[in-house]
TrEMBL record:
Cross-referenced PANTHER family: GTP-BINDING PROTEIN 6-RELATED (PTHR10229:SF0), GTP-BINDING PROTEIN HFLX (PTHR10229)
Residue numbers binding Mg(2+): S212, T232
Family annotation (CDD domains): HflX
Gene: hflX
Localization annotation: Cytoplasm
One Gene Ontology term of the molecular function aspect: ribosome binding
Protein name (Swiss-Prot/TrEMBL): GTPase HflX
Originating species: Vreelandella azerica
Length: 436
């Protein structure tokens, strides 16, 4: 920290206020999970009910006295609010309570700082922290005078606060430049995948919905997965083979949360852009969560904010092992898969998800029998390399008869590579919209 604060302790008193406005209301249970994920020990929870926050201390003088007594009783050195505090409210509370005060945004930033592993992730977290800190510098420097003072030294010297603000602006500008390079590299990679016609699938969802567990089960990756909020922060990409589609790039992304601070969404724009540019979003939902509808609403809100609300989506109802429910696929009126019910933990229904991904991504798959002469070995080998041959036998003339199934795009590419014309092999019923 670039400004002084009281020493922080790990034992915390929590503050949760129920507001009459549903839009401003936070979830107390989720708050406890956030505190646990940050590594703090919750000594007790102070609850209050208000129509609107107190402008000076957020909770009012009566609750402030209760909070002071709780701190003394539990010998706690940290107070965490389940709400966003203004810089002045945070400063006033620290002055009154003589201890460190943290709001919801600061708590989430602390968790993010613990979870970041990659260079990009650390840059994104630092950017969000610096932008958050820049509005609160005044709290740490109110006791300082100008750098130059006294007889013969008085003048328009820069205050320490102004110095730190200037240093912060320089660091923020530097991080923005480095993240722009990351975005540029990601955009190049996406363009390369687009040219190669490789589909990309992004896992999105509320935090702790089971995205990383599902990602590991599908790709045999070893992404950190735990029963805690924001277990995954850094994006991970893996290759996955899907029947009738071929190679697919799957991305595991950071989880969303209610009232996710806007600055965090901005800082993680490079990461979240994977979702906006995906061929298909797989929205992982904790089917056993009683607040799942509210969680889905929040995820949709963040997707809209990053411009990914128009990307095709497949919903996955995860954790059905906690509901005693059977794996299944729900389809729309045209028979297109919309929802897959499964358990990533027990691997129940994974094959149904792969089937649904195949149906959603394989736009044009052709299936027919093909007869090849012995001298057409190159074409035969190419079909085997594409895993397109379902069955093969020989006729009386010694020719190969292959029952094949593959995307039309792959068949056309193979024909072009071998110098053949696709229409000479395709049955008449499949010769519509042939690509030359």
């Amino acid at each position: 920290m670039v400004f002084e604060r009281p020493d922080a302790g790990e034992t915390a008193v929590l503050v949760h206020v129920d507001f009459h406005d549903d839009q401003a209301r936070e979830d107390a249970g989720e708050f406890l999970e956030l505190v646990r994920s940050a590594g703090a020990e919750a000594a007790t929870l102070l609850t209050a009910s208000r129509s609107r926050p107190d402008s000076r201390t957020f909770i009012g003088s009566g609750k402030l006295d209760e909070l002071r007594a709780m701190l003394a009783a539990h010998q706690a050195e940290l107070v965490i609010f389940n709400h966003g505090l203004s810089p002045s409210q945070q400063r006033n509370l620290e002055h009154e309570l003589k201890c460190r005060v943290l709001d919801r945004t600061g708590l989430i930033l602390d968790i993010f700082a613990q979870r970041a592993r990659t260079h990009e992730g650390k840059l994104q977290v630092e950017l969000a922290q610096l932008e958050y800190m820049s509005t609160r510098l005044v709290r740490g420097w109110t006791h300082l005078e100008r750098q130059k003072g006294g007889i013969g030294l008085r003048g328009p010297g820069e205050t320490q606060l102004e110095t730190d603000r200037r240093l912060l602006r320089g660091r923020i500008k530097s991080i923005h430049k480095r993240l722009d390079k990351v975005r540029s590299q990601r955009e190049q990679n996406r363009r390369a995948r687009s040219r190669a016609e490789i589909h990309s699938v992004s896992l999105v969802g509320y935090t702790n919905a089971g995205k990383s567990t599902l990602f590991n089960a599908l790709t045999d990756a070893h992404v950190y997965a735990a029963d805690q909020l924001f277990a995954t922060l850094d994006p991970t990409l893996r290759r996955l083979e899907i029947d009738d589609v071929g190679p697919v790039v799957m991305a595991d992304t950071v989880g969303f949360i209610r009232h996710l601070p806007h600055k965090l969404v901005e800082a993680f724009q490079a990461t979240l852009q994977e979702a906006a540019e995906a061929s298909l979003l797989v929205h992982v939902i904790d089917a056993a969560d009683p607040d799942r509808d509210l969680n889905v609403e929040q995820v949709n809100s963040v997707l809209k904010e990053i411009g990914a609300d128009d990307v095709p989506m497949l919903k996955v109802m995860n954790k059905i092992d906690q509901l005693d429910s059977a794996p299944r696929i729900e389809r729309d009126g045209q028979g297109v898969p919309e929802v897959v019910w499964l358990s990533a933990q027990t691997r129940q229904g994974l094959e149904l998800l792969e089937q649904a991904l195949s149906e959603r991504l394989a736009v044009d798959v052709i299936s027919f029998s093909l007869t090849l002469d012995p001298e057409q070995g190159r074409l035969r080998a190419g079909l085997h390399d594409l895993n397109a041959v379902q069955k093969e036998y020989f006729d009386e003339q010694g020719r190969s008869v292959l029952d094949i199934r593959l995307p039309r795009r792959d068949f056309n590419q193979l024909m072009a590579q071998t110098g053949e014309r696709a229409d000479t092999y395709l049955p008449t019923s499949l010769q519509t919209s042939v690509e030359w």
